[in-house]
Design goal:
- By secondary structure, the chain is mainly α.
- It has helices at residues 11-24, 29-32, 46-52, 88-98, 102-118, 122-132; strands at residues 37-41, 62-65, 83-87.
- It has a three-stranded mixed beta sheet.
Amino acid sequence: MGGQASFAPDADSIETLARAALARIPEPFATHLADVVLIIEEFADEETLDALGIDHPLDLTGLYHGRPLGEKSAFDSGGLPDRIHLYRRAILEEWIETGVRLEALVTNVVVHEVGHHFGLSDDDMHALEDAAG
């Protein structure tokens, strides 16, 4: 998907790129991602934006929902699975504004959200993105 296309990629296209990015994430992280649910939505809802103090829905490209791996315990059974939400319209807006390849942008968002799952620092996330890129 190099370059700007004359069409807006749909949710399935974004999901395909996101699943490919997840598949490129190396061990030991990959083992822990098998149960993470990937959800593609047009925008974050008002409740999510309000909780994060974000005014405009195009300012949020992705969100990790769940407890970071380091905070989980054996007593957490029965809860909802961890989820990574990707917000298609915000991703497309950033794609248009930056001119970055869509695949690279989706990989960046996915890796960032995976980084939250593992409680990684920004430096660790950049290293993980290099490995997954």
